[in-house]
Amino acid sequence: MLANVALLAVQAAVVAVRPGAEAGCPSSAQVTEALRERLPGAVVPLVPSPPPEMLRLDIEGATFILVDVEGRTRLRRTLSGADCVALAQTVALMVERYLQELDLPAPPPPPPPAARPRWDLAARAAWQPGPPDLGGAALVLGVARSSRVVRVGLAAGATGAWHERWPGGSGDLRRFPLALDVAQRVPAGAGEIQTGALLGLDLLWLSARAQDARQDELRLSPIVGAQAALSWPVAHRWFVRLLTGVEFALIRYDFVVLQTGSRAFRTERLSGKLAVELGFRVR
Q1: How far apart are CA 140 and CA 136, in angstroms?
Q2: Residues with Cβ < 8 Å from 89, sequence gap 6 or more?
């Protein structure tokens, strides 16, 4: 295993032992032999014009110095001992470990732990401005499933009744919205920004009275739209979500009173909405 690691290190650096310490302990020859055992192919002769990847090992008494071609000291150790062969092996091990640290790439950092999907439960107070026919406040309950980058939500609610009078009668119009939205999650400080699209279905219920007659009508209106929200944590698992958006009704209705033939309500093609939501994160 060590030999394989050493071979990888040799790809980036070679070592030359400066001669002249043959009488020392260990000698230049003993250190060279120990290096060749540990780093086969990485030990080269010292030449006047060394390549840039070469490191020179100087032996000065009991001190061993590893320098690069520019003369900068890369490693310096002072050893002691009576066994010259063992000291030579220690020097070779010292150089081998230095080359491993120098040339082997650092292991890649571990990937961040994947964010666990979560469920959100929320209650929303919404206002949909517009003509009095369909504008007004709504109470909406929702549930959402969030991954690391995407939020998918389902919400259903009811608006207050809008009341109209006409000669000979009166009526109320109520909306029951149901919507599925998909949004991208983008971190924003401690909170996040959510932008996406929605598909919805509005149930419209007209209840009209004219003299002694009563008229009830139900209509379904498909909705498409876009919305953006800012979600912000406020306490442990609790969050506040501010939401705005636009909705486009694919079908427009005129509610006509049968007894009089007059139009009581007319739905809008395009409408906006504003909402404040209080939610709870379920792990």
Answers
A1: 13
A2: 34
